[in-house]
Specification:
about 270 residues; alpha+beta; three-stranded antiparallel beta sheet; about 10% strand
Length: about 270
């Protein structure tokens, strides 16, 4: 069974949240976006995205299928033109931010869903704050009880002096990211064919294991702390959440209110 893993250096094993919550959160985002666009004043954006706003017929919701295509096919992108110029919007970001605007208690869940594969994390002093956000999501009925949330919240409230880092593949500290960042001096001796030669790969794994837990955590956290400012959504903190959104994107209500000219363009036309 898949899971979202919550790692901290003071525990030998991560706390695991049932991976079914990712599918649940993803569905919440798409359903909220679809519901938002069915409001009368959202007709202009609905028309641009070619959503008909009709009720399902014999259980088939054409808008639901269209939204899936927009997210997963990557064949079309939304352009907004206003006084600031042209902006290409991520459909994923637009849908996520629309959900956050409609359901503020969903923000921590959405950032977890989109950030766990990239090792979204919270620093020690903000752990209790994040625990409260997950508790808010449970209280609002957006997160589902009985899937591991209690253990996650207990972990976050356990102490305030060490970070908690997430993963989807139980792979933190992440050796590959450390090697790519060039902050593991010993990796300079790693054979160039380590990714294709089994013996070379085993040698790299052995060298990594020899570092010990504390050194691996130090290197893993150096990579996360050195992330550029535009990756700020991977560090979960009150001041970052206050900026709203997952990728500095806009949300549907604001986009329509702004009066921006909107159009869908084939992804291949993007310059």
């Amino acid at each position: 069974m898949s899971g979202i893993y919550f790692h901290t250096p003071t525990r030998p094993d991560p706390v695991v949240l049932n991976g079914a919550e990712r599918a649940h959160i993803d569905g919440l985002v798409r359903d909220t976006f679809r519901t938002t666009l069915r409001q009368p004043h959202m007709a202009s954006l609905r028309q641009v995205l070619r959503l008909n706003g009709a009720a399902p017929v014999e259980g088939l919701d054409l808008d639901k299928l269209r939204i899936l295509n927009l997210v997963f096919d990557h064949e079309e992108e939304l352009e907004a033109h206003d006084a600031a110029g042209a902006q290409t919007l991520s459909m994923t970001g637009l849908m996520a931010n629309t959900t956050i605007a409609a359901l503020p208690a969903s923000q921590a869940l959405i950032w977890l869903h989109y950030g766990c594969e990239e090792h979204g994390w919270v620093d020690g002093p903000d752990r209790a704050w994040l625990a409260d956000r997950y508790q808010d999501a449970l209280g609002a009925g957006l997160a589902r009880p009985g899937l591991g949330w209690d253990a996650v919240i207990d972990l976050l409230r356990e102490r305030d002096d060490k970070p908690v880092v997430t993963s989807f593949y139980n792979d933190f500290p992440d050796r590959q990211r450390v090697v790519k960042a060039g902050i593991w001096p010993e990796a300079a001796a790693v054979p160039a064919d380590a990714e294709t030669d089994l013996d070379a790969e085993l040698a790299v794994e052995h060298a990594w294991d020899e570092l010990g837990d504390a050194r691996r955590w130090e290197l893993g956290m150096r990579v996360l702390r050195a992330a550029p400012a535009d990756a700020g959504e991977l560090r979960w903190a009150p001041e970052v959440f206050a900026e709203q959104g997952i990728a500095h994107e806009r949300h549907a209500e604001e986009l329509v209110r702004s009066g921006a000219r909107l159009r869908l363009v084939p992804a291949a036309q993007r310059v």
